[in-house]
């Protein structure tokens, strides 16, 4: 039993154990007591430990030594005979480095959360700040960015439909002072670092306040005030107005038509989150009923949202079938208490609160990926991270409602912004979430961090931890249902040159199709690199317009021989066969 001190023991807690690796070194749980006089001190321990699920973690009843058995989440306990302490334990497989994994970050522009820097309107400085963000994200291992280009029904590019954003220039409707095209620049810089660029839009949000007079005269909310609903301190387009929906779709089509984006992205804002003030669409719903409509108000609203999701999918694919369309919704579709096919959670619901029926979108094939914002911690009472993950992995497989597997990727929205707050004070909370995701194999195709500034703040070392998790480069997973499934021809290495502290590798394309980028493989010694061995993937390199492509390997060990080979990939990440293999000898 735990040995009490003479003064009053008020409570006990378990420390020193949170996450374990299957087959890894055991960790000894430590028990601390809070005493009325002595404060918090470690308590000598006896046979007082237990585990709720020994199949996941085994604990020695006397010493408190805990070992990971199989991936999962369980709880260990310690008791002094009068009081009990409980500690959640996450068990994951040993760290792996998958060859294919989307590693993304949101760059939020509304209220200048991430970029541009608040109060900085000089285009040159903005470009430098953006490049810094990309460089840091690349250093952290990211291969995709999701940049908010329409935060409040405005634009970060010249548009026929929406005025220039005041988050960009300081005044809505005013272009950058040097006449530049920020969106084109952002895309080009992302592609230079071989990152996918997803243009992130908020379809319905008009402004962060209700003062219409502050909007530019050209703003559609000024031109069509009948499209707009004030609600809980903000302005929104009314999803029940067909003309407003068509206008939003046209604005997105403009982006797809004019810019080399890899994807169009929407987040969790559909009908506003419920607040004190009800959303006033009584007139539109009344018109619908008077016209013979039979849907309930909830079903009618869901159909309005379904309509814009469907129309956006159709418009994007009509212009560029290879451009991806994805949504990052609030992570609870419905609670199990409301719908037996829902998740074991107790929180706001997409279906009933935001009128966003994610299940229907997946069934209808309107999305290429879905990225639920799982912003809870392991064991969260309202929505435990692990329970939300378990539900979504079953949802994309169609297991929750027996509907069959859906053709889309599942990415997970990760709450980098919560690290260091409340129940996020354990430095391994978010890294353990990434490992937990990877234990789902191909069911989870990657993660997206919110937000970039919070990640780069490196609170509790979170950026360092993510960089460690992403230590090896990764290709983005293939979406076989998209157009462009024919891989390029294998390139041909034409020169390998050893320099003082680097190796210069040069190659040419073969075949007619131009690749989007290349994967460079390296092995020590002689032999042929294996593209299926993730440890041999050295780097990805964006294609340039030059006839000869070049890569400088400045990480090479000059004291040993190394063999190289290269593959070519198209923009949908289909990979060619291997090039010829070349070997560089040790430094003389």
UniProtKB/TrEMBL annotation:
One of its GO terms (molecular function) is phosphatidylinositol-4,5-bisphosphate phospholipase C activity. Keywords: Hydrolase, Signal. Coiled coil: none annotated. InterPro entries: Divisome_Glycosyl_Hydrolase (IPR052177), GH (IPR017853), GHL10 (IPR003790), Ig-like_fold (IPR013783), PLipase_C_Pinositol-sp_Y (IPR001711). GO terms for biological process: intracellular signal transduction; lipid metabolic process. Gene3D superfamilies: Glycosidases, Immunoglobulins. The keyword Signal applies. The keyword Zinc-finger does not apply. Residues 146-175 form the PI-PLC Y-box domain. It comes from the Bacteria. PANTHER family: GLYCOSYL HYDROLASE DIGH (PTHR43405). This is Family 10 glycosylhydrolase. It comes from Cohnella terricola.
